[in-house]
Amino acid sequence: MKVYEGKLTAEGLKVGIIVSRFNEFITSKLLSGSIDCLKRHGAKEDNIEICWVPGAFEIPVVAKKMASKGKYDTVICLGAVIRGATPHFDYVSSEVSKGVANVALDKEVPIIFGVLTTDTIEQAIERAGTKAGNKGYDAAMSAIEMSNLIKVLD
Length: 154
Prior knowledge:
Blueprint: E1 15-20, H1 24-40, E2 48-53, H2 59-68, E3 74-82, H3 88-107, E4 111-118, H4 121-127, H5 135-153
Parallel strand pairs: 1-2, 1-3, 3-4
Helix pairs in contact: 1-5, 2-3
């Protein structure tokens, strides 16, 4: 039996990170978590490029643009969509997740979904570095592993 796994080293990886400016008090912490993870696993700052977008809804189009360049081994998508009193949350959450998945399938580049979709601000804060860890860090770990796995499979 042959088993394939991605190594957990970021040495030499070129990483694009897309960050939503909306709810920046959360997304900036997710970004810090991602950068911390990448550097701890051997990534060089020169190999990390960050794009800020207005909101989560804009993430997929920028992910597609970045993945199309052939420059990045992976693209990490970070955002925070927090439920409000209208159905807007449902539309944005659904379309962002579909858009990110479609880009990954279309471009065959690991596009990592690090967009929080929470019912409350408190839940978002917990997932951005307090009680529930940092989901930006977790997204970067997935990016490292998936990038290396794709290289093994090519």
